[in-house]
Amino acid sequence: MRPIVAGVDGTGTDSAAVLWAAKAAALHQVPLRLVHSAEVTAVGALEDDPSMSSQAVMEVLRREGQAPPYARDAAATVQKIYPDLPVEVVEASGAASAALVGFQDEALMIVVGSGQKGGIGQFLLGTTSLNTAMHATCPVAVVNREVKVTEAFADRVLVAVDGSRDSAAAAVVAFREAALRSVPVVCLSTWYLEVVDGYVVTEPDSPEWQAIEERQRGRVEASIKVARSRYPDVEVQVEILHGPSTTTLAAATGRTNLMVIGTRGRGGFAGKLLGSVSHKVLEAAACPVIVVKAPRD
User: Which secondary structure element, helix H or strand E, spans residue 247, and what is its range?
Assistant: First the structure.
């Protein structure tokens, strides 16, 4: 079984992420793998051989029982809540994001915390969460520290759909999560400034407005075709929202406790690993957000 992999940094900002990962692993009936990675230097740790690699130093510390206890402590907390959940602890050395991304091929999902809270209700994406979301090929869940993990799972799963390959891949993950929870999927499609015949469309009752919304619905249906075929019993709702994508999607996270979004949208630059909309939604989200990347050619 493919495990859910969660990062543990020991600062306390990741406790919600670890508990959310454990809850998700129990729901999926898969093992949980807790990973802590530290930048370890040989100088001062082993005076007799300062040339040793950080991995070698970590191995020595582990054998002597002096490795950082954060992942083991997190595992003990998880197993008090989920005594039947298989939990594995991995203590690595080097950059945390590199350690987590190293499990991308075998992980069902990687879960990271979003870090400290910044201004205007936003969370600062730390290096680990940002780099993991950018580079991992498997889905990555970003969980902010204020998420109340004790609450019931969502009564709906939201997914942002814009016709891109990444949003189609996100739809498959959203349908999977909804099927496990026996809840509907709500597909969100946004549009904002549209010009028809030289005029900005502003009247909701106008034929132009209706035509734009029909176009958006068509994009949604095309994007969720594969997801529908895999999970035919999932109820589907479609919402066409008018407003800037970033603020509109971020606001929508306040009415659920799970959103799924692609790493890049239709307007994203081909070389960009995480689009500006996805990045800003992750920072402003009031709920966990799963970021999904379609396979690259």
Answer: helix 245-252
Whether residue 95 is found in the same domain as residue 192: no
What count of other Cβ atoms lies within 10 Å of the Cβ of residue 209?
18
Query: Which of 271, 26, 6, 239 is CA-nearest to residue 143?
Result: 6
Question: Could you tell me the two tokens for 128?
Answer: 């680990």
Contact between 266 and 220 under an 8 Å Cβ cutoff? The reply is no
Domain end position, chosen among 125, 151, 177: 151
- Residues 242, 293: one domain? yes
CB 8 within 8 A of CB 35: yes
What total of structural domains would you count in the chain?
Answer: 2
Query: What token pair was written down for 272?
Result: 């960009």
The 10s digit of each residue's pLDDT in 81-134 is 999 999 999 988 788 899 999 999 999 999 999 865 544 444 456 788 889 998
**CA dist 47 → 41, 43, 57, 62 (Å):** 11, 6, 11, 17
Contact (CB, 8 A) for 93 and 39: yes
Looking at the chain, which runs of residues are DSSP E strands?
A: 4-7, 32-38, 87-93, 109-113, 140-143, 157-160, 185-191, 195-196, 199-200, 236-242, 259-262, 289-292
Range of the domain at 160: 153-297
Domain stop point among 104, 128, 151? 151
DSSP classification of residue 83? T
For the residues of 197-244, what is the DSSP string, one character each? TTEE---TTSHHHHHHHHHHHHHHHHHTHHHHHH-TTS-EEEEEEES-
> What pTM does this model have?
0.86
Q: Are residues 215 and 256 in the same domain?
A: yes
